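Escalation from tier 1.

The customer reports that the assembly of three entities below gives different structure tokens on two consecutive runs. Tier 1 could not reproduce it. I'm attaching the input and our single run for tier 2 to review.
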Amino acid sequence: MATIEAPVLAPADSISARLVRFATRTPLHILLIGISVIWLVPTVGLAITSFRKRPDIASSGWWHALTHWSWTLHNYGAVIHATGMGHAWVNSLIITVPATLAPLTLGALAAYGFAWIPFPFRDTIFLLIVALMIIPIQTSLVPLLKLFREHGHLNNGYWGIWLAHTAFGLPLAIFLLRNFFITLPKDLIEAARMDGASNLAVFRRIVVPLSVPALASFAIFQFLWVWNDLLMALIFVSDPSKQPMTVRIPYLLSTYGQEYHLLSAAAFLLMIVPLVVFFSLQRYFVQGLLAGSVKT
Amino acid sequence: MKRRSVLVALAVIAVTAFVSAIAASASYGGKARHSAKSIEVFSLWGGSEKDAFLKVTAAFTAQTGIDVKYTSGRDFITEIRTRLAAGNPAEIAIVPRPGFLGTLARENVLKPLSSIGLSTAYMKQNYGPAWISLATVGGKLYAVPAKANSKSVIWYRPDQFKKYKWKTPKTWSQLLALTKKMKAKQATQGFAPWSIGDGPSQSQWVLTDWFEDIYLRTAGPAKYQLLFSGKLPFTDKSVVTALKTMLQIVNNNYALGGIQGILGTSFVDGIARVFEGAPKTPHAQLYMEGGFVGGIALGQINPSLKPGITINDFPWPTINAKFGRPLLGAGDLAVAFKDSPEIRQFMKYISTAAAATVWVSTGAVISPNKGVSGSAYPNLLVRNEAAQVKSAKVFRFDGSDQMPGAFGDTWGFALQNVIQHPSSIKSILAGFQSKIAGQWGS
Amino acid sequence: MEAPLGFPRLSQALPTPVEHPPAVGRVGLRTLGARLQGLLFISPALAVLTLFLIYPAYYTIRLAFYQSDFLFRFTHAIGIANFKNLLTNDPDFLDLSKFHGVNILRELLYKSDGGALLNNLHWVVFYITLSVGFGLALAVLAARVRYERMVKSVIFVPMAISATAAGIIWLFVYNFDPNIGIVNALIKPFHHPVAWLGRPSTVNYALIFAYVWASTGFVMVVLSAAIKGIPTEIIEAARVDGAGEWEIFRRVMLPMLSLPISIVTIWLFINVIKVFDIIYVMTGGGPGTSSRVIAFTMYEETFPNGRPGYGAAVAVIMLVLVAPVMVLNVRRFRSERVVT
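Tier 1 run:
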């Protein structure tokens, strides 16, 4: 089936015809480019603010900076050292990496089981997992907090939040990966089995290498999800020295001061990682997002 | 294939970053929070107030070798509650609300001072009876008053007053007349009479202070005490009268930016509107808040301010001459959630005049400690404030801070409602009263 | 299933279930071994899920029926008192007394002091409509230009950043000071500055708009992928028949997009039930309680107000609201139809 690959254009012939077409489509171009620019304005405004000196920020709009260019890195230095944002950035990393690898591993194993190993109640359990994908975090907050407190003070360190994120990331991992695994060529797997390979061997040697795109999709999606998370970190990481950036930044909005220069720099530091990941691995992220269009 | 290698490279980078992060954090945290030689103190100050406190903790560390980690939170009530629920509260917290202190004490999560080595007799030596009774719940003493401030002052620019030949008012009608004079100049000179910042960053307590100063002077200290202990309902006529008086100044006409401005400006930004560009013309002439404004203005907003010349305060005018000039004040109280030798040392230190002297020498606070001499205060602003607190014949503690739980915030929001819908004062008060009735003492 | 232009087709997300692969080799023992192996593979994941997701959810439901204090001690069972209080006695959650029935639908949509539950209703109506509207329009328009991918990327960027960052960005945009807030700077020549986040009458719409900004990218990407699945022949045929662009859009594209639109609508609906971060950062539920929503109420009642039993009741209500979607998902997945 042919799909809309290219813009739907009438056949182009002469230059004048092309010019006419361009002129009539100019409103469209203006609209689209205009909307794109407007969409970018809030983010760009923040970025520019973060590079301005503090007195400038209060006395003139950031759009003035476009013409009178005077900028500084001082805000970033202040935010990283004085307010401990650099420390918080490290914390974000410490929380995010295991919280991505754990559901990836456990999820991949489980997904393989659901895709390629028949066992009783397999489909029913899988449907249960489909249902679990959209459970809100709020329904588990209080019992988890009690659980972590009463069994090993898991709230003091990172174990609490690692376990919580793993649990909430598993349904999507299993769903996404299982749906990918079942598209793998049956013959390959059967051939390996006939050669006597165990399930684990099949998983390691055939399924995983062939599934890198799907694994990457989930990993990147989960990475950004955990990096950007606020609520779980707010509740499960109670030690202020272990809190990630998403939790520490609202603290800059404290009772005693709105320090715009610090806020903008901190927010930009928070955004930098997802932006880099997004722009370099866009395809995988979007893939994960689409597949998880039932998870938010 | 190229994509694969990109992914592999990224995975390697991620793992490397992770491992080095762990390694870095091991040396970052340095002394672990629960190690023998360090304690955590939690409060809500940021900016210049935080810096002032850090000088005190530095002195403590120099003296005892015990490390103090200061942490702050946006909503301190929530923070404390969440951490208690999670089972790991800070060792010590310094809270500005005796009402919340009472809630915590009644839940038995605080250590009574007598159990950590501070006897009531010792405390009575250092602090006056008003403070002792604030820190006492159910007959036991739970807190060390850490700092105090007066909330019966109004801040202004003496250079502007000199320029326009204005006089600092002594009565409410004089204050109103002054406001009108300033308003008359607004069109040509560009400044509004009042700057009020009651909006973002949880600034809603600013209006509660307005109300309390006015209520003290219109209904009297005795009724004030009844109102803020739950014995007088908020629907009482005296409350309505006080609010209507407040609206004579806190309205669209006299506040910078009008009601929108009040709701859109934070407490600190409100100070900046008056003192930021000194000695240039300010955006507004008057700012009402406590003694700590001076410290914030000098320390954070405009260090080039000169006390007495470009910044000063005058005491709250009288309204009803019969009630004179009662002092509305507030303060912060230090409490301990756990017991350990380090905690005992810190609590003891905070209760000494020596610590208080270090603290007040920063110019950010005044101390409730009896042993601090007036000469320890570095500038005339805090010296005046200390003198005002000491010489007050009638002293009342900030009312909204005496409300149980988080009702101080609820009251602040009710007042925001009042200034937006002045015709609905009675129903707003009724709504608030129904929420807080029965909650006193909880 | 080649993905054109770098964005995958929707069908990749929801393929049909496959039948069981045939057992190979010695049937009896092999099957038994395989069965055990299958359980082995899923048991770690299942253990984590049960311990940290399923059991806590059940426990929360139980907790909703108990009296509690802020140290999370649950004292005695009080039946449905928490639910009754929530729905009838708590004006911050649901306040029907403000609606006088003159034109109830209009009042429900435009009044902003009806409590958290009705705020969510505002969100459902405005957030979903605006996001789908913008996303659809952008997807259709961008499909006609060569730089479509760039536009998609730009609109999609806000989805990658956290709600915290988005909240800070929009705090700046809505700032009262025209030197900082773009909106107030733009209206300065016509109108005095407005405290967008400080007035109960505007705060919810301000928040909704900020979140629409963050979510439109998702709608656009999904619908854009779906539009690519529409066969060109049908469009060409309609053009040849003399149909105008708008008619083509209404009569040809829209019906074929109805399923993807319903998918994104459901996704947006779940977002509305769960929205928390952006409100926590931008207004903290304020001014007062006028921008509260359900998820925020759950947090506020459990932690600042120290009533976890009450908060659990709110969580149960959240669960009840998303339950239909859960059922829908399961049903959709079970059906044999291929989803395009």
